[in-house]
Amino acid sequence: MIFTRAIVRKPGKNFAQGLTTAANDDSPNYKILVKQHEAYISVLRSIGLEVILLDALPDHPDAYFVEDTAVVTADVAVITNPGADARKGEEKTIAPVLAQYCKTEKIRHPGTVDGGDVLQVGKHFFIGVSERTNQEGADQLGRILGGYGYTWATIAVGAGLHFKSSVNYVGKNTLLVTQSFDGHEQLKGYDTIVVDRSESYAANTLFVNDHLLIPRGYPDTRKKLDALKMEIIELDTSEVRKMDGGLTCMSIRF
Ligand code: CIR
User: Fold this and answer.
1) Of 57, 94, 34, 38, which Cα lies nearest the Cα of 254?
2) Domains in the chain: how many in total?
3) How far is the CA of 133 from the centre of ligand 1 (A)?
4) Residues of the domain holding 240
5) Structural domain contains residue 86
6) What is the pLDDT of residues 46-75, one digit of tens each?
7) How far is the CA of 22 from the centre of ligand 1 (A)?
8) Ligand 1: which of 249, 250, 251, 253 to mutate, judged by most atoms within 8 Å of the beta carbon?
9) Among 39, 108, 28, which Cα is nearest to 61's?
10) Distance 244 CA to ligand 1 centre (A)
C-alpha cells in the first residue's frame, strides 16, 4: 500500500508534561525533540508523502502523537476516543482535518481506542485491548471496519503501552515482535522477527512506502531487519522514547 499523505503535529514546549512511565533521569529536551521531529518529517517527505503539519495543542502535551486519534483506511477514517483522560479532546482537532479527505466515523463512549493499538496488515486489522483501548471500543472499531470489508480480531496487549509498542508489520508477510509475542497463536500465518529483550523499544518500527523507519541505536534489530533487504532509514527518537512514544505514533498515514 502506498500512502500519499501524513498528518503530523508539532510538539509543544510543554511536551515533557505528557504522560510517561519512563524514569527519565535525563529530562526530556525540547530543542532535541524538535530536531528529531523535523528529521522525521523530512524523511516522510523524502519517501513521497505530503505532510500536513498541524500546530501544537498547548492543552494536550501528548498531541504530537497523532496516531492515537484516528484509524485511517482507504475507505474510512475512524476518529477514536482516546483511553487516557489527559488525551481526550485531541481527536476533535483531527476530525475536521481528516474530513477534508475521507469519510469519517467515530468511536463512541464508553468505547475507548488509541490508534497505537491498531495494526493493519493488508485487509486485516489487529485491535489490541490494552489500558487505553477497551473491549467495547475494540468491538466498535471492528464492526465499523467490518462494514468496509476488512477482517479484524482483538488481541490482548498485556504489558506495554500499546499493541504497536510490541508488534508491527515490516512488509514481506513479516511481523516484528517483542519476545512476549513470540509464537503467539494469533500471529500464526506470518513470519516473525523477534526483537532481543534488550532492544524491545525497536519493535516500534514504521513500514511506509516500501521503507522501514527504525529507531537509531538498536544494532541487533537493524541486523535482523537487514535480512529483509528493504530500504532502512534510522531516526533518532531519544526524546520521544522518554515520553513512551515511537516512530509510528507521530503520524497518521493515508
Ligand atoms: C501517552 O502515554 O499517551 C503518550 N505519552 C505516548 C503515546 C504514544 N503513542 C503511540 O504509541 N501510538
Assistant:
1) 94
2) 1
3) 12
4) 5-158+231-253
5) yes
6) 999 999 999 999 999 999 999 999 999 999
7) 12
8) 249
9) 28
10) 6
pTM above 0.85, yes or no: yes
- Nearest residue to 174 (alpha-carbon basis) of 191, 159, 160, 149: 191
Ligand 1 neighbour 62 (Cβ under 6 A) = yes
Statement: residue 216 has pLDDT above 80: yes
Q: Which atom number of ligand 1 is nearest to the Cα of residue 86?
A: 3
Is residue 70 in a domain? yes
Number of Cβ within 10 Å of residue 226's Cβ equals: 11
The CATH number given to whatever domain includes residue 58 is 3.75.10.10
Q: What cell was used for 209?
A: 512506502
In this structure, the number of other CB atoms found within 10 A of the CB of residue 192 comes to 18
Question: Residue 127: how many CA atoms within 13 Å on its side-chain side?
Answer: 28
Ligand 1 atom 8 nearest Cα: 245
pLDDT of residue 26: 76
For atom 2 of ligand 1, the residue with the nearest CA is 19
- Over the stretch 231-251, which tens digit does the pLDDT of each residue have? 999 999 999 999 999 999 999
Spatial separation of the C-alpha atoms in residues 103 and 90, rounded to whole Å:
19
Nearest to 112 by CA among 93, 129, 126: 129
**Is pLDDT of 173 > 80?**
yes
